[in-house]
Amino acid sequence: MGTEAEQEGQIYTLGLLERLREDLRRYGHENDELYFRIDRTLHELANPNLHEVELATAFRIELWDRYSKGNLRMTMAVTSSIVIAQAAFDVAVSEHPNERLTLRKGAMVIREHPKVR
Which of 68, 76, 98, 109 could serve as 61's disulfide partner, Cβ 3.0–4.6 Å? Predict the structure, then answer.
């Protein structure tokens, strides 16, 4: 899982990416093509280890952008086992209790934190 310093470093880096994405979003209104190219690159950068994973059939634990409701910050875990996915989600919630997290399979949300009513 990494040390606390490594995890804090990852969260800090993701925060920088979020700020860059927000600045780019403002700029994107003037140049849509460039915005979408850079946004795609930022998504790849946020998930560097998932290029070969078939996400359509896997369970995913996702950490969402705290500043923009609809943007995924990163996929924290991917597995084909619902048991492992449930355990990974519980650990993610305990490590990031103030963040929005989802456990999903495809478009279906299985669990979310905090629960949306």
Answer: 76
For residue 90, give both structure tokens.
């519980």
pTM: 0.54
| pLDDT tens, position by position, 27-63 | 666 666 666 666 766 666 666 555 555 666 788 899 9
Beta bridge partners of 59: 79, 105
Phi (first) and psi of residue 109, to 5 degrees = -85, 120
Q: What is the pLDDT of residues 8-27, one digit of tens each?
A: 667 777 777 777 777 777 76
CA–CA separation, 82 and 86 (whole Å): 6
Structure tokens at 7: 């995890």
3-class SS at 112? Answer: strand
